[in-house]
Amino acid sequence: QSCSVLQAMSRAILSAPTELTHVGQFGNSLPSNVSNWVHVLLDDESPAAPSAASGAQCPDVRVGLRLDVLYTKTGLLANPQFKIVGVQYTYRYASVLYQCYNTMCSSDATSPTQSVELVSATNFIDISTPPLPQLREIPLAGGQLPYDFFYPLV
Questions:
Q1: pLDDT of residue 26
Q2: Residue whose C-alpha is closest to residue 85's, from 19, 32, 18, 26
Q3: Which of 23, 111, 126, 148 is the most exposed place for a label (fewest CB within 10 A)?
Q4: Are 4 and 57 in contact (CB under 8 A)?
Q5: Residue 124 burial by CB count (10 A; 0-12/13-18/19+): exposed, middle or buried?
Q6: pLDDT surpasses 60 at 6
Q7: How far is it, in rounded angstroms, from Cα 147 to Cα 120?
Q8: Which is higher by pLDDT, 27 or 50?
Q9: Backbone angles phi, psi at 7, to 5 degrees
């Protein structure tokens, strides 16, 4: 019973917003321009149904939520603009080992507490490729001088 409550509570606390399906590539992306929006991916490797507790261990507890925002620099090298190219939510699951704290292990304890560390993190990942120098062609002097150009000097 307490394991299923712990699994449900951790899922409720660490849940990605379901209404968030797209993110604008730039800060001023217009809702009408569909090509300026990136689909948000959800990577959920959880089992279909959480496992039951076995002994003092509660498996499949959602303990982490990570948001990865992939971006690249576009535009001028002197003043690049940041463009979001990908967004992904990832959950992390672990088994929680039940532990007793101080008087909570005694037989008269009516509501023992269990502390579980839940972690939420956001990573901004730069996937820009370094700019390559672009060298221009050496100009060719294709003009011809008139045959008497040096006449007064010769």
A1: 92
A2: 26
A3: 111
A4: no
A5: exposed
A6: yes
A7: 81
A8: 27
A9: -60, -45
The answer to whether 84 and 39 are in contact (CB under 8 A) is no
Q: Which of 46-60, 74-88, 140-154 has the highest mean pLDDT?
A: 74-88
What residues form DSSP beta bridges with 72?
83
Q: Label the pairing between strands 119-126 and 81-97.
A: unpaired
Q: Identify whether the C-beta of residue 40 lies closer than 8 Å to the C-beta of residue 23.
A: yes
pLDDT score at 120? 93
Both structure tokens of 108: 């008269």
Please give the Cα distance from 127 to 36 (Å, whole number).
Answer: 18
Q: What is the pTM of this model?
A: 0.70
Q: How distant is the alpha carbon of residue 138 from its chain centre? A: 45
Q: What angle do CA 107, 112, 114 make, to 5 degrees?
A: 140
Hey, what amino acid is at 144?
A: Q
